[in-house]
Design a protein that fits this description.
Helix content of chain A: 10-25%
Structural class of chain B: mainly alpha
Largest sheet of chain B: 2 strands, antiparallel
CATH topology of chain A: Immunoglobulin-like
Order of helices and strands of chain B: HHHHHHHHHHEEEHHEHH
Helix content of chain B: 25-40%
CATH superfamily of chain A: Macroglobulin (MG2) domain
Radius of gyration of chain A: 15 Å
Oligomer: heterodimer
Number of strands of chain A: 9
Distance between the termini of chain B: 84 Å
Structural class of chain A: mainly beta
Distance between the termini of chain A: 42 Å
CATH class of chain A: Mainly Beta
Largest interface: A-B, 23 and 27 residues
Number of helices of chain B: 14
Strand content of chain B: under 5%
Strand content of chain A: over 45%
Strand order of the largest sheet of chain A: 1-2-3-7-6
CATH architecture of chain A: Sandwich
Largest sheet of chain A: 5 strands, antiparallel
Number of helices of chain A: 1
Order of helices and strands of chain A: HEEEEEEEEE
Shape of chain B: globular
Number of domains of chain A: 1
């Protein structure tokens, strides 16, 4: 119970301060990070390039975005570029989910001695 | 009586039309509408231009665009063969290593050629002009032809707004852009599948019933057990990307075709790619794939997923033309061995183990993706250009 309270207290400030202006955003939570994101365009289509606008709270030292098809055990055919747009916000360009099925959109946050990944499942028909 | 009734049911069962779940209906709807919308190529300033289409059509059938004056693009891309040639491997001045892909519906693609070595239709159109095994020309010989032929020079001026100048490479690129403008007009017609797809979407059972029952069962396999729509997506039935499908990539003993691996390397070193000086799109809006494409070891032996539209008339199949019939293709996927795949741990394909009846149904469905041909009529070319 005590431990749960500590986690809640630690997570709360990040959640409260975390914003992604410009419209509705999805939330994904890892142990230490809260990620808010939206794709452009939305909804996603198979074989269509898209961008991801996202915020990571608290701001890590660096971030990476990738996507992975767990059942097929392969990733994308493209390597996205991520640009920091300020205040812990970023824009990733050049993503494409080239097959129908279940994908994981992965946000990777790097701090001094740690790498933490948070994944969001996306199903494309 | 009971036995006879059961027997009748068992005999009758395979002939029943398929029923579709909501998920299957959604998947089927995703293969339309047809024709799909298209908005022109911003990297080609003459895309959709009437004069460019006219010039491109002439160039496509122009034998003087080859080094020996004997062959043209239409040598390997014949209108009556769904813009392919019916041969396992195309033959220009010499035999090449791959099957001639159809150029119908090519405007919907984002990579061009079996290895995707080109990111625009105009750059792809230049490639066979240069290739010593295909048309065997050079920038200088193409430019000389365009400049010296009065009619061609006139049509070039009408298309590009200025007479062909002294820059040979620019004339070569413009030739590719006119060829692309023509090929962008080659779109296959509506098919029995399209009528069924639309009828299913609006719940019109009378119209749906006109679609052959075997094709309906094959379609159910296509979006279900076969999972063919994992890669053959959208209205053109292709995701436009690259996969290893277990087809041999040996060109001849001791020599391999690297497929997409070689294609990406060629693309990135090509100054005629969409990041180079010849794109007419200052925003480089269609270059995002070229900017971000990733060269991976697994690309070795990957080839482009072909469109399935008008498939029936573009045999033989696969990048090397090694499978003669649609039945052979279905059998290939039905019996594929994971040992034949060259992937780095990918698990995309597995043997479908289709019965003979399922194979026949899947073939019946694939045959309904053809428009019956005859969409293109070559018009007589008026000779004088002013």
């Amino acid at each position: 119970m005590h431990r749960l309270l500590v986690v809640l207290l630690l997570a709360a400030p990040a959640a409260m301060a975390c914003e992604l202006p410009g419209g509705e955003a999805r939330k994904v939570q890892s142990a230490h990070y809260l990620v808010l994101y939206r794709t452009q365009p939305a909804p996603l289509k198979v074989g269509q390039h898209f961008a991801v606008e996202f915020a990571v709270c608290p701001a890590p030292e660096s971030v990476r975005v990738d996507a992975w098809m767990p059942e097929h055990r392969h990733g994308m055919n493209y390597r996205p570029t991520v640009t920091a747009t300020g205040e812990g916000r970023y824009r990733a360009e050049g993503l494409m989910l080239h097959m129908a099925g279940k994908w994981e959109l992965i946000f990777e946050a790097r701090a001094k001695d740690s790498v933490e990944r948070v994944a969001q499942t996306i199903r494309l028909e | 009586m009971k036995r006879i009734g059961l027997l009748l049911l068992l005999v009758a069962a395979p002939a029943l039309a398929a029923t579709f779940t909501d998920e299957e209906a959604r998947k089927i709807a995703s293969h339309g509408p047809w024709p799909a919308p298209w908005s022109g190529d911003p990297s080609n300033r003459v895309s959709g231009n009437k004069n460019a289409i006219d010039l491109g059509e002439r160039l496509f059938f122009e034998r003087r665009l080859s080094v020996n004056g004997q062959i043209s693009c239409s040598r390997c891309h014949l209108p009556e063969r769904n813009w392919s040639d019916g041969l396992p491997r195309a033959v220009g001045l010499k035999e090449v290593d791959r099957n001639a892909p159809s150029v119908v519906n090519v405007r919907y693609h984002h990579w061009f050629g079996w290895d995707g070595a080109h990111d625009s239709l105009w750059a792809q159109s230049i490639n066979p002009i240069f290739d010593a095994r295909e048309l065997g020309m050079s920038a200088a010989s193409v430019a000389k032809f365009i400049r010296s032929d009065r009619d061609m020079a006139c049509r070039y001026r009408k298309t590009f707004g200025a007479a062909p100048g002294t820059d040979d490479e620019k004339i070569l690129v413009d030739t590719g852009k006119a060829l692309a403008a023509f090929q962008e007009t080659l779109v296959s017609g509506r098919t029995a599948f399209d009528d069924f797809r639309d009828a299913l979407a609006r719940g019109d059972k009378t119209a749906m019933a006109k679609y052959p029952e075997a094709a309906q069962r094959g379609l159910k396999l296509f979006v279900g057990k076969g999972a063919c729509d994992t890669c053959h997506t959208g209205a053109a039935f292709t995701n436009g990307e690259f996969h290893d499908t277990g087809v041999s990539f040996f060109v001849r003993p001791g020599e391999v075709d690297p497929g997409r691996y070689g294609g990406i390397k060629k693309l990135l070193s090509d100054r005629m790619n969409l990041l180079g000086p010849y794109s007419d799109d200052p925003k480089r809006s269609t270059a995002i794939g070229t900017q971000h494409v990733s060269l991976e070891h697994r690309n070795f032996g990957e080839f482009k997923v072909p469109s399935l539209r008008n498939l029936e008339s573009s045999m033989p199949y696969m990048h090397n033309g090694s499978l003669a019939t649609l039945r052979d293709v279905v059998k290939h996927y039905s019996e594929i061995s994971p040992d034949r795949l060259h992937s780095d741990g990918e698990q995309i394909l597995k043997a479908l183990h289709l019965t003979d009846a399922e194979t026949a149904d899947l073939v019946a469905f694939l045959e309904t993706l053809s428009d019956g041909g005859g969409q293109y009529k070559r018009r007589p070319f008026p000779e004088d250009c002013r």
